[in-house]
User: Fold this.
Amino acid sequence: MKKKAVVLLSGGLDSVTCLAIAAKEKYALHALSFDYGQRHRVELALARENAEKAGAEFHLVSFRLGVPEASALTSKEAAVPDYIEGEHGIPATYVPARNLVFLSFAAALAESIGARDIFIGVNSIDYSGYPDCQPEFIRSSTETANLGTKAADEKWKFQIHAPLQNLKKHEIITLGLSLGVDYSRTHSCYNPSPDGRACGKCDSCGLRKAAFEYLGLTDPALGK
Amino acid sequence: MKKKAVVLLSGGLDSVTCLAIAAKEKYALHALSFDYGQRHRVELALARENAEKAGAEFHLVSFRLGVPEASALTSKEAAVPDYIEGEHGIPATYVPARNLVFLSFAAALAESIGARDIFIGVNSIDYSGYPDCQPEFIRSSTETANLGTKAADEKWKFQIHAPLQNLKKHEIITLGLSLGVDYSRTHSCYNPSPDGRACGKCDSCGLRKAAFEYLGLTDPALGK
Assistant:
């Protein structure tokens, strides 16, 4: 029987690439997505589409996180800031403790179904300055999950894989293309139009746009 | 201005005592409760009642955790086992990664509202053999939360308080009574009757019943 893996899947460029990596490693895939009141909820349709394409079981968990006003991604009021190259503070789109919550649900699902491997598409090179994308956080999350579940009493451990951790955005895209990822069917934009089109201006659009340009390509998710 | 604290509140004996301890320490209280499909959802009414009595703001987060069949607490099929004195394995009522998820939401709420202090009523003396009640887990959770939030970049840290960690159940009750806790208005039973009455037989009922008896008292939540 194939080993199971839980893959955190937002439907964005990074997590869809991460799913392709896990697929190549021949796991029985369980994709896990979240509706947390994000303004770019359109990403969830693409998460589901990519999960189905990869033959993954699709799990969707819905909840409200902290207080909505705490982030430009969940607030109805706050504006999503434009991308500024080279800026690396914590931006207004940071969602309090988001990856902490996501990884906790991944551990809960993994423990429930007997998976030991969790994949998350964080990276800390070309990223948005979020603290919950750093390797120290992933290392500590692994330890906490192993202490707070049956792993503490039994002879197994969770492993959290972050295969994009040290890649530049253009390297992620090159890798994904080699694995057959169709980036026109990914959504990264924080501030899409009502019909789901990427804005091309936010932090998340800016990072991927620049990476495609670096490769001499046009981001296929733009101008759809 | 008072310092804010987030208190995880199930409505059970331990968490209501923990709330009373945080209240005594003069925090501005934010109680955080979860509807995760538990069969003893009746606890949530008592969580809200105790939060209001303590002057706490009440936050309720709803979600489904892992797969329901993974625990006797969330499965419609599995039976809740009876209490057996001195038994300390991981019981069927263990919910995968529950405290991991709860603490993650506590960190998200705390970060959102500017609280640095989180209270959780875990204890590892008279408890149900759950791995997510151990001091190493609480220590590791604190570290992970401090790495996965703005605490990593700013000059503050979360502190997770587990004031019941090393108390026996009867010591918790004695402490709670000294703080004015009304234990008739707490709910710990995993397997209540449809009208919300405690069964008196499950692990959770058995532990508190034995502790009240040790003190020469009758558990006021039984026989209501």
